[in-house]
Amino acid sequence: MRLAILGASGHGKVVADAAELAGWGEVVFFDDAWPGLKENGPWRVVGDTSALLADLASFDGVVVAIGNNRIRQAKQQTLLAAGAELCSVIHPSAVISAHATVGAGTVVFANAVINACASVGKGCIVNTGAVVEHDCHVDDFSHISPNAALAGGVKLGALTWIGGCASVRQLVEVGKSATVGMGAVVIKDVPAGVTVAGNPARVLEPHKD
Fold this sequence. Notes:
Layout: E1 2-6, H1 10-21, E2 26-30, E3 39-40, E4 43-44, H2 49-54, E5 61-64, H3 69-81, E6 89-90, E7 95-96, E8 101-102, E9 107-108, E10 113-114, E11 119-120, E12 125-126, E13 131-132, E14 137-138, E15 143-144, E16 149-150, E17 155-156, E18 161-162, E19 167-168, E20 173-174, E21 179-180, E22 185-186, E23 194-197, E24 202-206
Parallel strand pairs: 1-2, 1-5, 6-9, 7-10, 8-11, 9-12, 10-13, 11-14, 12-15, 13-16, 14-17, 15-18, 16-19, 17-20, 18-21, 19-22, 21-23
Antiparallel strand pairs: 3-4, 23-24
């Protein structure tokens, strides 16, 4: 089983490591910094996005390993349009309920938990030790950083970013493209397109959608 990863970064290394532990036999990187970039840790970088698009048939799965939500979205849409076999990568120590759903292109790292009746959309990152509790809904291309926790029934809009060790109270809604700062404690709804931080979390500044 051959896996192509688009995005040879530190995040990509963690995706590759999780993929190998999950049973992928060969992992190969593509990155638009190629040919200047030919290695990503122990893994080879063999081409750019165009090279991957030309060679999709030789891979059993493809995943985008880019931390920026919007760039990850754009790259995944390009791959889908070309007929790529997009897959999820799930670390074997992650705990995902049989009654939860995880979309194509999402990565779930070590010790993360996704509990019953939660749904995580396409192209998301559920990072190391993150918790997505029961009945949460995480929309497409969002990123839940290491050790962040969503309590039951939380809703995240598309392209949201939840910082490391942040906590979101049960039933709270975080709007599309919002950013929750590292360590923030979110106790009320967050509008779309804003950045919040602190305990309790407060709006710092709006940013463009």
